[in-house]
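Researcher: Here's a chain I'd like modeled. Treat it as a single chain, no partners, no ligands.
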Amino acid sequence: MSATLNLLAPAKINLSLDVLGRRDDGYHMVEMIMQTIGLCDSISLQARSDGHIQVLCRHPFVPEGQENLAYKTANLLKQLSGKSSLGVTITIAKGIPVAAGLGGGSADAAAVLKGLNRLWDLDLSSDQLAQAGLKLGADIPFCLMGGTALARGIGEELTKLPPPPKLWVVLLKPNVGVSTAEVYKKYNDSAVHRRPDTNRLIAALAAGSLEAISQAMANVLESVTFPRLPVLRHLKQKALEFGALAALMSGSGPTIFALTPDYRRADAIFNGLRHQVEFAYITTFKEVAKK
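Model: Modeled as a single isolated chain. Structure tokens:
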């Protein structure tokens, strides 16, 4: 058993997000196409033999105790293993903005699941890891899979999709925050003016048709977040004016991402808008290995 393991935990964006209904337990049923990107957190796992789980992170908005999702993930795996002596120190270096709609916490949890499966010699299958992750967050199974996928249910019913053509991704996060729970709570189907065409988007990704990809993308949660945070509508419109192929809010926000096949155009979007936001970054799509 290796004593230390270092992993990358990549962020995600939503190329589409549709809400299909609501279950009796309050969870919304969604249909969305999710994509891993190159922006990452760095996770270091150091095995301990004293049974303790410790989380270290210098980011002021990331808890280091039992409220941290990485801690909960390690604790769940420890319980599943039945071995009280298993312990780990988890060190998280944040590259992904916190509460940005980019899945940073879920990505960290997925990295911990994969890493501890190896570090603790648990020999759990990919399905077993996904089932464990789902107990802690609906995005974790996708973060385990990575790449490009269609997500249904509450986000856990995953279908692997072929990777799209290479596109540059410009991330723009203003200094505002949103509550995912509140956005879904206030979602009203009648307020949606544009829905994604999921089937067309899947076909466009497979065909590598950039025009069709841009025409099929949409996020119905913009109908909730944009009226409350007009800066997001402004950033989306400006990104398109700077020549983005498409621009969309990721998840429930507040990050806007812009797509373009041309790096020079990505750089123009980045430089044109980075002074208006708290966080700006240029990256690409990323495939993620299962193991």
